[in-house]
Amino acid sequence: MRRRDFLSNTGAGAVSVGAGLAITKNSLAVQPKKNPVSDLYPDPVVVMIFLRGGQDQLNTIVPYTDKTYYKIRPTIAIQKEDVIKLNNRWGLHPAMKPLKRFYDEGRFAVVINSGSPHQTRSHFEAQDYMEYAAPGNRTITDGWLNRYLTATANPRGEDPKKLRALAMQERLPRSLRGTYPAIAVPPNLRDIEEVLDLFEDFYSGGDPEALSVAQRAAARKQSGTSSRKSLKSRDRKKEEDGLMSDPIMASGTQTIQGLRRLREVLYGDADDSTYKGPREAPETGATFQEYPGGWFASRLKSLAKVIKSDVGLSVAATDINGWDHHIGMGSTDGTLNRMLSFLSEGLAAFMDDLGPHLDRTLIVVSTEFGRVAKENGNDGADHGHGGATWLLGGQVKGGHIYGRWTGLEPAELFQKRDLQVTTDFREIYADVLRQHMKFDLPADFFPGYTPSEKGLGLFA
After folding, report:
1. Is the separation of the CB atoms in 202 and 12 below 8 Å?
2. pLDDT digits (tens, 9 = 90+) for 29-87
């Protein structure tokens, strides 16, 4: 394996940085109470789950009292008797039943008609614009989450035992690419000790002292500190000899170190008591829900262990591909049904597993755009515009459907075919950073866009 290919896959080679929602309230929603774990582990975590392909809002968050919905989707609409009703207008696809209790408990909210204002119907463009949080701007090459990590990095260098940024997949999503070193997780992490040894030896030149120099230099680079006065003359000589002339060398040392730390967290304890099946969670007395099968649930299972291990995790991300349902999306018997079950069952188990740590963990589910309101002739729908954003856990004011609904008649649709975008996704992301992550958002954080000062009121 070439070192640049390895780094591309693990993330070390990446170099970079409408307020006033209408609210539909669920009268049964109850805001979660504070718990002692929040005081013991106060640092917030955000988990970004990106549904790649253009996830359909209308068959997921269903306007089941809208006659036009059934008129324009005569084959694939979710029938009223099958909808999991949230209120007198909106309901969930029946495959999302595992998440209904979180909505009732005030831990799950949806922003309808949300997305990017850019008109592109290209998956690649739309995903880039959303993950860089700069619609239409091709000059931005650092993800919005990486900009946050860079802005909040410890100026003295990060603790090597901490894992602030983690992609639970083989390649870094664009949102995590940038100057701050984030780690992508190879699928065979448990079995790559020899590979890590080889790369660590390469980056250090076979010299443990040189590795230490590289790590300190990477910390200075990350914090924006250019001073080298603290280095001994022999250390500066090693730097000048070329060890740090390539930024990949610096970031490579941190990647290897991070992967070793992650292996220790996930596999270092022979008594893996977190995952022994249904049990009583000692902090809350709630019954732990066993994870379903499949790679997505497996990723979340590992992620829950990292969060509960108190290793400084701040940002995590993972993708689910396959939401481009031109064909066979179906109603309660198609591809969408299977994929929503896959997603919802994994999320429910993850939230149960986190227990009291859910109070400090916010899950954000996004997609690059929605789908056309009217079904096509292939039991599906084509690329659209407005979609939906989900927020689960944290201190979200759940039990609500947020956003301004504009209707489904042709005159009410974007280009007479798609849901309107009435909430810019950057408003949501801004609230996530300001309210959940407690980040003082700089004026230029979103290039060319200034979120409202008031915010959207998504958090308690």
Report:
1. no
2. 545 556 666 566 679 999 999 999 999 999 999 999 999 999 999 999 999 999 999 99
- Helix, strand and coil content of the chain, in percent to the nearest 5, comes to 35, 15, 50
Phi, psi dihedrals of residue 50, rounded to the nearest 5°:
-105, 125
8 A C-beta contact, residue 56 and residue 369: no
- In angstroms, rounded to a whole number, what is the distance separating the alpha carbons of residues 285 and 162? 29
How far is CA 201 from its chain centroid? 33
Beta strand spans in 230-360 (E): 315-320
Q: Is the distance from CB of 115 to CB of 421 less than 8 angstroms? A: yes
Angle between helices 295-308 and 247-267 (to 10 degrees): 90
Q: Would you state the structure tokens that stand for residue 288, as one six-digit string?
A: 């732990």
Cβ pair 431, 456 in contact under 8 A: yes
User: What phi, psi does 193 have (nearest 5°)?
Assistant: -60, -40
Nearest to 65 by CA among 38, 45, 85: 85
Closest CA to 93 of 390, 336, 324, 399: 336
- How many whole angstroms separate alpha carbon 212 and alpha carbon 220? 13
Q: For 420-450, how does the pLDDT look when each residue is reduced to its tens digit (9 = 90+)?
A: 999 999 999 999 999 999 999 999 999 999 9
Tell me the CA distances in angstroms from 413 to 342, 409, 410, one per residue in order.
30, 7, 5
Which element (helix H / strand E) includes 61? strand 61-62
Query: Mean pLDDT score of the chain, rounded to an integer?
Result: 82
Count of CA atoms in the C-beta half-sphere (13 A) of 30: 6
Q: How far, in Å, are 62, 387, 421 from residue 416 at the CA level?
A: 20, 15, 13
Please state, in angstroms and rounded to a whole number, the distance separating the CA atoms of residues 18 and 454. 10
For the record, the structure tokens of 352 come out as: 């149960």
Angle, helix 208-223 to helix 193-204, in steps of 10 degrees: 80
Residue 119, Cβ density class (10 Å: 0-12 exposed, 13-18 middle, ≥19 buried): middle
Tokens coding 249 = 């060398």
Query: What's the one-letter identity of residue 35?
Result: N
- Other CB atoms within a 10 A radius of the CB of residue 278 amount to 9
For residue 227, give both structure tokens.
Answer: 């001073």
Q: Residue 103: name the closest of 397, 399, 341 by CA.
A: 399
Whether the full predicted model's pTM is greater than 0.85, yes or no, is no
Question: How many CB atoms neighbour CB 412 within 10 A?
Answer: 14
Are 116 and 126 in contact by the 8 Å Cβ rule? The answer is yes
- Whether the CB-CB separation of 111 and 377 falls below 8 Å is answered with no
Sign of the Cα torsion 7, 445, 311, 343 reads negative
